Amino acid sequence: MQAGSSDFTLSAPPADHATTPADPREAAPRPLRLSFIGSGSEYFRIWIVNVLLTIVTFGIYSAWAKVRTLQYFYRNTRLDGASFDYHGKPSAILKGRAIVFALVFAFQIASGFSPLLALAMLLALLAVFPLLLVRSLRFRMANSSYRGLRFAFAGRDAEAYQVFVLWPLAAVLTLGLLGPLAHQRFKRYQHDNTRFGTAPFAFSAAAADFYGVYLRLFGVVLAVTVACAVAGLVLTAGSYGAAALLVFAIVGFYVGMLAVTPYLMARLQNVVWSHTTLAPHAFRSEVKASRMVFIFVTNLIAIALTLGLYLPFARVRAARYRLECVTMLAASPLDSFVAGEMQQVGALGDAAVDWYDIDIAL
User: To the nearest 10°, the Cα dihedral for 25, 28, 30, 33?
Assistant: First the structure.
C-alpha cells in the first residue's frame, strides 16, 4: 500500500512506464544492536586493584577506581562498530564526594546540638542537593562520548527541585502511591534534557507505563508474602499463632523484594528505552524478566560461594545481557548522522566540559 493512496489498483502498469522509486524516508529503520565485548577476567584484574588501592588509601583512590571502571565498561560497549568512551577526571569525582561528606558531617554535628539546628541543616541540604545532582548529570554526560562526539545535559535547576525534592516528598506523603509518577517524572527530566551533540533525546513513556510495572511488582511481593505466611502456619501447625504468621510474613516480604529486584530492572529498562528516541532514531529494549531473574539468582549464589570474588564476573555478566537487549532503530546511517552533529557542535562542545567539573554520584 502506498502512502496517500485511497484505493487499490488491480491492473499492472504499462511496460514502458518506469516504476517510481520508493521514498528513502519511508525505508524501514536499520536495527543496530548494542554489544559488550569485555570479559569477567579482564574486569576482575581492574576490580581487584581498585579494591586494594581504595583500602590502602582509606577510600581516596575510589575516585580513580570509578573512572577506571567507567572507562572499561564504556570502551567495551559497541554500537555499529564503534565504542563509547568516558573522559571524566578523578579529581572532579573526589571533589564531589568531599562536598557530600562535608554536608553529611555538618548535619551529624547539627543533630547533636539541637533538633531545630538539625532541621535547618536538613532544609539547607534539600536546597543544595538538587543543584549538585544536576551538575553531576551534566558532568557525566559532558564526559561521555561516541565516535568522538560528546553528550550533554541541559536540565534546568528549577525543574530539578520538582524532580528531586517535590515529587519524592509527594511519594512519601502518599505512602508510595505517587512513587511511580515521581519515577516517570525523573526519567522524563533526564532523557528530555540529554543531547548527543546538538541532537535531542526525547522520552514518551506515560505515568501509566510506570504504574503498570509497579503494580505487577506489588502483586508479586504480596503473593510471596502471603504464601510464606500460610506456609509458616502450616509448618508450625498453628502452634505459635500470630507470632509465626508475623515472622513468616516478614521473611516472605523480604524474599519477595529480593526476587522482584531483577524483574523491576528488566521491566523498567524496557519501558524507558522503548519510549526513548534520539532525533530520528528510536530504541527498543527486550530484556526478559525470567532471564534477568536467573542471572541475578545464579550471580548471588556464585558470589556467596566465592566469598565475593565473583562480583566483577557477575557485574559483567549482567551488564552484557542488559546491553545486548537494546537495539537502536537507525533511520539513517550513523556515520553521516555523527558527522553532521560534529559540524554543528564545532569547537564549543568540549568547552562545556570544564563548566561542570563535579560528580557526586557514588
Answer: 140
- Pick from 2, 302, 350, 297: which is nearest to 142 by CA? 350
Distance CA 139, CA 212 (A): 32
Cross-strand partners of 83: 78
What is the per-residue pLDDT across 112-155, written as a single tens digit (0 to 9) for each? 777 788 788 888 887 888 888 888 888 899 899 999 999 999 99
Q: What CA–CA distance (Å, rounded) separates 163 from 184? A: 10
Please determine, for residue 46, whether its predicted confidence score (pLDDT) is greater than 90. Answer: yes
E strand or H helix at 94 = helix 90-113
Cα separations in angstroms, 10 against 7, 13, 15, 314: 10, 9, 15, 59
Residues 99, 358 contacting (CB under 8 angstroms)? yes
| Alpha-carbon span 51 to 127, nearest angstrom | 34
Residues linked to residue 328 through DSSP beta bridges, in sequence order:
32, 283
Helices (H) and strands (E) counted in the chain, each on its own, are 13, 11
Evaluate whether 130 touches 155 at the Cβ level (below 8 Å): no
Whether 357 and 95 have beta carbons less than 8 Å apart is answered as yes
Q: Are strands 276-278 and 82-86 parallel, antiparallel or unpaired?
A: unpaired
Q: Give the DSSP letter string of 3-27.
A: TT--S---SPPPTTSPPPPPPGGGS
**CB-CB neighbours of 56 under 10 Å:** 10
Contact indicator for 256, 225 with CB cutoff of 8 Å: yes
* pTM (two decimals): 0.81
Angle at 156 between CA 183 and CA 266, to 5 degrees: 25
Residue 244 has pLDDT above 50, yes or no: yes
Residues near 41 by Cβ (< 8 Å), separated by ≥ 6?
A: 313
Helix, coil or strand: residue 165: helix
Helix, strand, coil percentages (3-state) for the chain, rounded to 5, are 65, 10, 25
Distance CA(209)–CA(184), nearest Å, equals 9
65: how many CB neighbours lie within 10 A of its CB? 22
User: How far lies 22's CA from each of 215, 239, 356, in Å?
Assistant: 45, 76, 47
